[in-house]
Amino acid sequence: MTKVNPNSLSDEELLAIIKEEYNAIKPKGCHDFFRRRVNTPSRTYLRKRFGITYNELLIKAGIPKEELNSVRNKSLDEILDKDNYLNKLQQLANELGRTPTVVEYRKKGYSYHNLTLLFGTYNQALMEAGLKPNFEPKPNKKISKKVLLTIYKNLSQTLNRPATINDLKKFCKEYRLSDFLHTFGGMYELKKEAGFIEKNKTKKKQYTKEELIDLLITEYEKCKKHLTAREINQNANLPLHFTILNYFKAGSISDVWAEIDNILVERKILEKQNNKQTRQSNIQYRENIGEKNVSHQLNFLNPKYYKVYNNIYLGIDNLVQQIDHLVIGTNGIFHLETKNYKGTISIDRHGNWERSFNGVIEQIDNPEGQILRHEEILNRIINSKYEVVSLLVFSHPKCLFKNIDRTTLNVLKVERVLPYIKAYQSSLKKINVSEVCNIIENHLVNPHRTAI
Hints:
About 45% of the residues lie in helices and about 15% in strands. The protein is of the alpha/beta class.
């Protein structure tokens, strides 16, 4: 079959091509199908045109549900049979003679992901199957400052002296040492609350967070590495690591160093901006860091086959848009929008984007509108002659995804950008890189003319 432009085909004609090629390939799954397909357009094109997932598209094309490897429709209860999953749990329990663990369930080849989608948790599924969970979840213990103080006073009275950190570790089994130190902010404050230090007595040293940041950066540059908690406690120039955790409101010393690393990158960026205004917002700092990480990855593309543009402004018909990254290659035109969020990025059932970090959930801007505006201006500039592939790239190393399949956007971590671009195969004709680059460069505008 001769390749044709999919834009010239009706939906019915395009679905017929998909069905014919699916039956010929008999793929193992989504990636296998698009790796081996010849006449079917790319996954990105199909997502934009139909606005549905791969499995939903196959069903629409007339492929029976039972032939699909995994069907993810909008109504899980209609597709996934709860009774079937409960029966699998019961059968496995009968084979083992006891309640199966998650590892044993997965080793059988059963889908743990689908199980949690249907029942919420593995324990909930076990209970609905009439099985007793292997581990009962421990109830959250509410830590009372008054109770901790009483325990500390009683222990000190038994020892006939103020209890030390080692005493708390050795004799207090009901609570962790960190419960005391986080609640009171350190041993000094705990002893003071217990009456072992005079109220009017000044503390040896008071810090601000900014002073601690400078101290940590100084020691980092001396040692050429991140100091461990033990090394911090042994360092005469630094307070105890619990004091540092309290100032940074962090759960571990690695979280503190992650914040320090970001500050170091920000300061280096500021050093290079000699002719720019003094300060930008924290959001702009994160964007600069994220774009720098992505630019670093794109530098490894072979310049013989790819042309990379970073942080450019494109204009046409009095419309101007800022593009983080644009890659022109023989196998596709890739538009990259970069975000540098730390924490878990998720999408709720209403399409709202959220970020969860340190127990705090906040809404973030939905990037779909921004990416569509960028695609619109790019399609106008190249006159829709070639397909534009948009990628939403999250560059922070401590970024996780949840329910990200609720968007039709191509969402990637920064380390997956190069493999995606190199493996991509456009359904349209091979791209003339020099021609497209000339078109793009003729539409470059200065930043001060931006009107978004």
